[in-house]
Amino acid sequence: MPYYVYILLCKDGGYYTGHAKNVKRRAEQHKKGQGAKYTRMHEPEKIVYVKKFDTRSEAMKREREIKSLSHRKKQQLVKFI
Fold it and tell me: Regarding beta strands 44-53 and 15-20, do their DSSP bridges make them parallel or antiparallel, or are they unpaired?
């Protein structure tokens, strides 16, 4: 079963990166305050990046790579999607 890496744009301009089997459902959880601590403090606005992976380990690796990027690099990444 595929996994997806996603980036949410938050209302304060920040980004949250995560992975999930169902991105739409996970984004709704974040919006309802049932997601990560970060998204409870920084309200998510919309999904701005999604990439599909065959395995959870591949998705988690890409998630870690994205989380290590600067805000500016994340902006550049989501511009091309």
Answer: unpaired
| pLDDT tens sequence across 16-74 | 999 999 999 999 999 999 989 999 999 999 999 999 999 999 999 999 999 999 999 99
Q: How many domains does the chain have?
A: 1
Label residue 60 left, alpha or beta by phi (over 0 means left) and psi (-120 to 50 means alpha).
alpha
Token duo for residue 36: 């990560």
* Residue 13: both structure tokens together: 């301009």
> What CATH number corresponds to the domain at position 10?
3.40.1440.10
Tokens 């309200």, residue located: 43
